[in-house]
Amino acid sequence: MRFAVARRRSHRGEAAAKVLPVFLFLAVGLIIAWLLAALKFIFLPMLLALFGAFLLNPPVDWLHRRGLPRPLAVLAVVAAAAVVFWLGGQYISASFVAFHDGFPKYEERIQDLIGQARALTDRFPFLSPDRLREAANEISLSGLVGNTLNSFVSVISYVLITLIFLMYFLPALPGLPEKIRRAFPDERGPVLRRAVEGIGRQVQSYVWAKTFTSVITGLGVTGPCLFFGVDFAVTWGVFAALLNFVPTIGAFLSVIPPVLVCWLQPDLGGLSTALWLAGLLVLVMVLTGNVLEPLMLGQSVNLSPTASLLAIFLWGWLWGAVGMLIAVPAMAMIKLTCDNIESLKPVGVLLGN
Fold first, then answer.
1. Cα separations (Å) of 8 from 1, 17, 18, 21?
2. Considering the entire predicted model, what is its pTM?
3. Cα angle for residues 83, 88, 91 (degrees, 5° grid)
């Protein structure tokens, strides 16, 4: 009897020993997630600066090989990046302001559509005039664009902080392998150096390939919008190019604003024109997302679709729209780190494609 009791206690101890690491892992994960969300103003610019350092290090090295001292090369590249961001920010903010100023005619069109929908109240009792009136009052495209503009200003502030971090990360990046070798003189040193070099290559290949496909996507949206005469056609192309950095859902979200404006624009053909435009834009998204991007990206980001989607929701929950933009390269960094650490290789396998 005592032997049976001791055996049961032994089994319970083994089960507890197996379950305890899982709970500890979940607890540590929740603490890390809370810290990332609470200290977003620090960690988000740092991660963006790390991506920027991997991305801009090749042009800095190129200028340095041409005889320019490395500090001056860093200053030149960061200044060029700042000018590009400033010009892009100026254009996008001006486009939003112009779109905001042109809202009255769209809101009049919305009121006309609400008025036409009142004819349906006899057939559908739940569409009462009072409810339609409440829905019309709640629709405020002006407020929506105002909130979007405020979010854009917040993004610009993060970009400025990122540039400051970048000024420190870029000069230190070439000496990182030597620091790793000195900090880890055992067998962990080569493993960590390979992981850092692999992360740099993946970030570079992903960002450049995604930038090329985003430009193609933006042109593919601008062309049909110009053909149908949709207002702010170039703005919708830029919007589509930016959203294309959000895998899977970003490209199709960029279809909604131009189609909606096409439907609401008084001088166009209404719903039929909007449906034609929607069909063309969806075709562009399908071709770029399922044909062009796989050819360009190849195996640069070897993530499963489930891991990519999980990364989008996770980083979007933590850091909002900017988190969704960096979700895939951030998850690729985590996967590559897991691939180079023996105890975490099963996690890398699960995240892989």
1. 11, 14, 15, 21
2. 0.71
3. 125
In the numeric block, which tokens belong to residue 74?
């860093």
Tokens of 171: 């000069």
* Structural contact between residues 221 and 289, judged by C-beta atoms closer than 8 angstroms: no
User: Measured in whole angstroms, how far is the alpha carbon of residue 57 from the centre of its chain?
Assistant: 22
Residues 127-148 have pLDDT tens digits of: 555 555 555 555 455 555 555 5
Specify the residue for token string 């930016």. Answer: 242
Site of tokens 């620091």? 179
38-86 pLDDT tens trace: 888 888 888 888 888 888 888 888 898 888 888 898 889 888 888 887 8
Going 177 to 179 to 180 to 181, the CA torsion angle's sign is positive
Q: Which two tokens stand for residue 38?
A: 């609470």
The DSSP secondary-structure symbol of 119 reads G
Q: What is the dihedral of CA 327, 199, 54, 331, to 10 degrees?
A: 10
Q: Which among 219, 209, 201 is positioned nearest to 247, based on CA atoms?
A: 209
The helix (run of H) or strand (run of E) holding residue 14 is helix 2-38
Tokens of 175: 């000496």
Question: Rounded to whole angstroms, how far apart are CA atoms 233 and 98?
Answer: 12
How far apart are alpha carbons 47 and 162 in whole angstroms? 8
Q: Could you give the C-alpha distances from 78 to 37, 65, 159, in angstroms and in order?
A: 27, 17, 12
d(CA 196, CA 176): 9
**Residue 95: partners with Cβ closer than 8 Å, 6 or more residues away:** 232, 234, 235, 238
HSE, side-chain direction, 13 A CA sphere, residue 307: 19
Residue pair 266/109 in contact (Cβ under 8 Å)? The answer is yes
Nearest to 107 by CA among 284, 261, 296: 261
